Amino acid sequence: xxxGKSVIDRAAExxxxxxxxxxxxxxxxxxxxxxxxxxxRVRPGLRVVEERAEGAFRTLLLERExxxxxxxxxxxxxxxxxxxxxxxxxxxxxxxxxxxxLHARELLEDPxxxxxxxxxxxxxxxxxxxxxxxxxxxxxxxxxSRRTGVPLPGFPYRYGIARCWKCGEEILAxxxxxxxxxKAEPPSPRPRTVQWRFSRTIGSSYxxxxxxxxxxxxxxxxxxxxxxxxxxxxxxxxxxEKDDPWRWLEDMVRIARWRIEGGAGRRFPPEADVSP
Length: 276
Ligand SMILES: [Zn+2]
Ligand SMILES: [Zn+2]
Known about the structure:
Blueprint: H1 2-20, E1 26-30, E2 37-41, E3 46-54, E4 57-64, E5 67-75, H2 82-87, E6 98-103, H3 104-109, E7 113-114, E8 118-120, H4 128-148, E9 158-163, E10 170-175, E11 194-199, E12 204-210, E13 217-218, H5 220-225, H6 245-261, H7 263-267
Parallel strand pairs: 1-7, 5-6
Antiparallel strand pairs: 1-2, 3-4, 4-5, 6-8, 9-10, 11-12, 12-13
Helix pairs in contact: 4-6
Bound molecules: zinc ion (2 copies).
One zinc ion is lined by residues 31, 33-34, 36, 126-127, 129-130.
């Protein structure tokens, strides 16, 4: 631990100097859907107004035009640092203030490139491929919605496209919790195909997805855990994160990419509907 503190000291010092000199700062963020990195320029005018030593972190409070704008939480330590970040409660920062968790060594290497290991208070960013996949998926889902007469729901319901194992029709499937075979009453308004049903497969009742054409239960194991299932790649929420519309959007983008480019999409490409 003795060496750790001075690394943080030096990193904080370098960050302060870069900001004071008005250097251009690049923020390197990972796409919330696929993890691809993209850079964007930090709007200039940030000023350090306070520095705090808080447990394992050195926190720099930055303002822009006299208003709190960003908090940098600098940490150090060898890999894996994930447990440090996982166990840390979300920062109580004012609304609109982004919190960036930066590694001291990376900051020392280049104080003008911020590559946060964790981010709070910022809308999720998506790369062009993820945005395109989501648009394509949305069109397909709207089409299935029209054919089934089942509307597309909003938060917290994630939706995916599945093929009924019994009648072979394409249908919408819904997920609202990362727990399988849920017993608790789903949030309202509940899609009409989500029904309290007895499953012979698991020997008890739960809130199940059902087919709007033939009524068959669409098993949670298939929907969530099979590579061909629509929710296979969704629900990557970290333990510290509560569900909110941003997590919903991240999950929806992953569901979309999985459908368009991943297992489910490969197995049932749109062309398959018209080929003999
Ligand atoms: Zn992406
Ligand atoms: Zn069916």
